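Page 47, continued from p. 46.
Same chain as before, 95 aa.
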Amino acid sequence: MIRFGHETINSVETEKRHQYLYVYENGYGASVVRSEMSYGSEKGLWELAVIKDFDNSGPSFIIDYDNSIAHKPIGYLSEEDVEKLLDRIKALPSV
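Result:
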């Protein structure tokens, strides 16, 4: 599925939660979510966390706090903001 201009590897879409997972060849990825618990959801906005060590059997991953893009999840993102951040994550040097 293509979402935010990028191919997702896993997605969850329910009435209260939308989450899309992305993993790139450089070893990084992203979790993009909008739910009752995410920052900005009350305004229809998204939250993004940079991830690594993705395991599709769970799926499970580790939020990466040590990268040049985000040292914590970023909330209150428009769809355009998410797409730009995904482009930057995809362009990071390999883990």
